[in-house]
Amino acid sequence: MNVNKILYKPVGMVVGVLGxxxxxxxxxxxxGKVAGTDEAPDPTDKxxxxxxxxxAATIQGAIFGVVKAAVDRGGxxxxxxxxxxxxxx
Length: 89
What we know:
89 residues, transmembrane, membrane, transmembrane helix
């Protein structure tokens, strides 16, 4: 295994956790604006409609995907700036 990958692993894990927290906060804000409620419906909530559940899942998936990609990319760029090496090289 490449030394850069080994050194980047703990950095990537911390960045990933922070990204998850950020994505969750962004989703909660967006969902609050879209639905006017604090929490998205749980898929097994019998009071929630199919539309509510699928809309929440769509928005959540899009936000988490974009935030994960941005955070992962930013972490790799930051690692390169500090070490001079790209994590996958």
